[in-house]
Write a structure and sequence with these properties.
By secondary structure, this protein is of the alpha/beta class. It is about 40% helix and about 15% strand. The chain has 15 helices and 12 strands. The strands form 2 sheets. Strands 8-7-6-9-10-11-12 form a 7-stranded parallel sheet. Strand 11, helix 14 and strand 12 form a beta-alpha-beta unit. The chain starts with a helix and ends in an 11-residue tail after the last helix.
């Protein structure tokens, strides 16, 4: 950020680099950005996105147009050709999630726009949450808690038995950073790990399945931990659920659209699978009403990534990526097409 340094040396107020902020942040995170950048805040503006982008481009035309944007991982705002046309000065997009399915990576590359994501900031927390969802579904922790709170224990007696985790065959779809951490945690519980990924990984001894249908047929549990793209949209479909079977469990901490939600609901209602633990949904924040009434389904509001520690780490990581960009240095966690 040479312009700021030069301004400070001359005794003038520093000219902060301009930044588009297109996600809601906690006060500490927002304050840290404003200390370092001239922030144009989409949600604070109250404007529709096209009006906000036009106003930001006009207001920041001098002395420093917005060259970077911070966007929400998997958010509703898509960085595509229309977005980039509205801010032609943009040269860097920093996502606050690992997934970049909302960014047109090919278009960004064509225009020379760099893209970064959150890297492994969230990986351990998401892995913990996936294991927590699985234990909850198998042992019926949340459902049993509701049973106690409703005063049903003295009336109905013992709660129905759950199922043990140890010995379960767990098929992980996507053995990246998060998937690998899930595998290690479940190994400690005595689970047998299988996986599907874009290619066989020589570094692990887990059994590899080149397609998800065959993985489901050999698994007691499917854990979705892959990115969302054309190949993985509805990777869990009717045929995969049928292959998983009536005792099978589905856990999703990937993206909602990795699962055909309508087919999942039908399979649960018909008893063709045993249960599900979901942190993500196809049309967030809307959750299908049918899921809300199912005692064999555990639901959380896309919070697998969020702990107080991960938010602090994300703040530091995001700022480091931005400072690297504005200083002409390589991004910490670049994402390529």
């Amino acid at each position: 950020m040479a312009s700021s340094a030069a301004a400070t040396a001359s005794g003038e107020p520093p000219v902060l680099p301009s930044l588009l902020l297109i996600r809601r942040l906690d006060p500490a995170f927002a304050a840290a950005l404003r200390q370092r950048f001239r922030v144009f805040d989409f949600f604070a503006s109250g404007d529709p996105l096209p009006a906000f982008l036009a106003a930001a481009a006009a207001a920041a035309a001098a002395p420093d147009p917005p060259r970077a944007a911070v966007i929400m991982g998997g958010g509703s705002v898509r960085v595509d050709a229309a977005f980039l046309d509205a801010i032609p000065s943009l040269r860097c997009v920093v996502g606050t999630g690992a997934g970049v399915d909302h960014v047109d990576l090919d278009e960004c590359a064509r225009r020379g726009v760099l893209v970064a994501n959150s890297g492994t900031v969230y990986s351990a927390d998401v892995a913990d949450h996936a294991v927590g969802l699985l234990i909850d579904v198998l042992r019926r922790v949340s459902a049993a808690e509701r049973f106690v709170r409703r005063g049903l224990w003295p009336v109905q007696g013992d709660y129905p038995l759950g199922t043990k985790l140890g010995g379960k065959r767990v098929g992980i779809i996507g053995l990246g950073n998060i998937g690998s951490l899930i595998a290690k945690r479940l190994e400690a519980f005595g689970c047998v790990i299988y996986y599907n990924s874009r290619k066989l990984k020589e570094s692990v001894s887990y059994k590899y399945f080149p397609n998800v249908h065959d993985l489901a047929a050999e698994s007691d549990v499917l854990v979705v931990a892959c990115a969302l793209n054309k190949e993985t949209r509805h990777v869990i479909n009717k045929d995969v659920l049928r292959a998983l079977g009536k005792d099978g469990i589905v856990i999703n901490i990937g993206r909602g659209a990795n699962i055909d939600e309508a087919e999942l609901i039908r399979a649960l209602k018909d008893g063709r699978i045993a249960g599900a633990g979901l942190d993500v949904y196809e049309n967030e924040p809307k959750v299908p009403a049918e899921l809300l009434t199912m005692e064999n389904v555990v639901l959380t509001p896309h919070i697998a990534v969020f702990t107080s520690e991960s938010i602090s780490d994300l703040r530091d990581h995001t700022i480091s990526n931005l400072e690297a960009f504005f200083s002409g240095k390589p991004l910490l966690t670049p994402v390529l097409p």
